[in-house]
Design brief:
The chain is mainly α. Helix content is about 75%, strand content about 0%.
Length: about 325
């Protein structure tokens, strides 16, 4: 009985740690849009996408080489390609293009649908059945942020919104695959191999972009570029995938409902964008949805271990709770 209680406590601590890791990643990711906005002051959108990928790839390659990490098994490469295409190339490029016509606050709120998309793709990939309450809360959170976005744009979809919806779809696929792989590989290796796999494409993108886009580097744009490369593209994902592996992709993904609201705050404080009047009530409702999804999904239940039946001295099999005659 004590061993059983100890196992439950250990699992509870592991899940608490996973929630903290995923939450820390969300906090780090929430600075990505303001940092990208600053990076665009000195570089073009294709240059930002290429350079952040190359820098993150070189950093990851150094970590993999330093740790003498073996190349992943062939069965993992399909998932790593999804991580590379969705999280390393697709999402950064599409969101960077969107930020040329949309504010960081608006873009962040549109991406608020990402948790729902991630949970849906993950559930489909792993054939996981989640409680109806989880889905209702996730849908409610997504509806709130979409309604907020439409209210801010007066009910009209823009070209920037189309970029953003494309970004959230490819990123959700990358999150779901990465979270699944993190159950077989250490979380940092998942994103490390992802950015390394994307290096040929990001390197070509960088060379072509630098030759065709104007470059006017400033201290702020260079600092922002370093952040999106080292943190948004690599370091934040190390925490994110470890958290996903500990508490599950659907549950972790819903913590990201808080990211648009945090980005709204940073956009107001760091960039000087006006904080919408509905931001606070929206934040309150979204946080309530997050709380419901965390309770609805619940902690992972320990699997019962089958105990063999007792065999009497005469060789008779005695079922549990029974007795020999």
């Amino acid at each position: 009985m004590r061993e059983h209680d100890s196992a439950i406590r250990s699992r509870s601590v592991s899940e608490s740690g996973g929630t903290l890791l995923a939450g820390a990643a969300v906090l780090l990711f929430s600075f990505s849009f303001p940092a990208t906005f600053w990076a665009l002051e000195g570089f073009g959108p294709w240059t930002v996408t290429g350079v952040r990928g190359v820098l993150a790839g070189l950093l990851a390659a150094a970590c993999l080489a330093g740790g003498r990490v073996p190349v992943p098994a062939r069965r993992h490469w399909r998932g790593l390609v999804a991580v590379a295409g969705g999280c390393v190339v697709g999402f950064p490029l599409l969101t960077t293009l969107a930020l040329q016509t949309s504010s960081t606050a608006h873009s962040a709120v549109v991406i608020g649908v990402l948790p729902l998309a991630t949970a849906a793709i993950s559930a489909a990939l792993t054939r996981t059945r989640l409680p109806r309450l989880f889905w209702w809360a996730a849908l409610a959170g997504a509806a709130i942020v979409v309604g907020f976005a439409l209210q801010q744009s007066h009910g009209r979809l823009t070209a920037g919104d189309l970029y953003l919806f494309g970004a959230l779809l490819v990123c959700a696929a990358g999150y779901a695959e990465g979270g699944r792989l993190a159950r077989h590989l250490p979380g940092w290796q998942v994103i490390a191999w992802g950015v390394v796999a994307a290096l040929p494409l990001t390197a070509v993108t960088t060379v072509v972009a630098l030759a065709s886009e104007p470059v006017h580097p400033t201290v702020r744009s260079l600092t922002a570029m370093a952040y999106v490369a080292a943190v948004s593209q690599f370091g934040g994902f190390v925490l994110w995938y470890r958290g996903m592996a500990a508490i599950g992709v659907p549950r972790a993904s819903q913590l990201q409902l808080a990211q648009p609201l945090l980005t709204l705050l940073w956009s107001a404080l760091l960039i000087g964008e006006r904080l919408p009047s509905l931001a606070l009530p929206t934040a309150t409702l979204v946080l309530a949805c997050i709380a419901v999804t965390q309770r609805a999904s619940g902690p992972a239940r320990p699997q019962a271990v089958a105990t063999p039946p007792h065999v009497s001295t005469s060789g008779q099999i005695i079922p549990h709770g029974g007795r020999s005659d």
